[in-house]
Design brief:
Blueprint lengths: L2 H40 L5 H17 L1 H6 L7 H4 L4 H36 L14 H4 L1 H24 L12 H4 L1
Helix pairs in contact: 1-2, 1-7, 2-7, 5-7
């Protein structure tokens, strides 16, 4: 298997995991949010646990979907400027962006998020609210896991851009829907 092929396999795995996370968390997030909103608005009944569950689902979908969003080219960019650049210039910017910004950011998420999650597990941290959710370490674990997924996605994109710049790949990465087509 070629380096580009290995990158594509890794990227398909990250995208598959991101899609699974979206389906597993978005539907319960919507259901819990609607249920909580109806309870508060019409029956004047609120629930601390439901509100915490809402932000737990939200954080899970955001953190565990970062790699997916990056590979799908679904994150914020300055498209007006980017669309005017050559493919080689885009590849250089993406390569340097990955190595100088994305990798250090992901390392911070992995290391410090991992410390937060581990500390939370060891101390059996729970919500501060008396009726809040226990096992805070579960949601805090999405920080290092999400950072790892984004790091793997970023390294794959960096490798593919380096290969493009070396003339060994047909196009720069990420290319959004490219993984769907093959």
């Amino acid at each position: 298997m070629s380096v580009i092929g290995a990158c594509r396999v890794l990227e398909r795995g990250i995208i598959g995991f991101g899609a699974l996370v979206a389906w597993v968390t978005l539907i319960p997030l919507i259901a819990v949010s609607v249920y909580d909103m109806i309870g508060r608005q019409f029956f004047h009944v609120g629930s601390t646990r439901l509100q915490e569950l809402e932000w737990h689902f939200f954080l899970a979908v955001v953190m565990l979907g970062l790699g997916y969003a990056y590979l799908r080219d679904a994150h914020v960019r300055i498209d007006i400027l980017r669309d005017r650049l050559t493919l080689r210039t885009r590849a250089w910017i993406e390569l340097f962006g990955c190595l100088l910004v994305l990798v250090p950011f992901c390392m911070l998420l992995i290391v410090h998020g991992g410390e937060l999650a581990l500390n939370s597990f060891v101390t059996t941290e729970r919500a501060r609210a008396p009726l809040g959710l226990p096992m805070r370490w579960i949601i805090k674990s999405t920080l290092p896991v999400g950072g790892l997924l984004l790091l793997l996605a970023g390294l794959s994109v960096a490798i593919r851009n380096a290969m493009f710049l070396a003339g060994r790949a047909p196009s720069p990465a990420p290319a959004g829907g490219e993984l769907q087509r093959g």
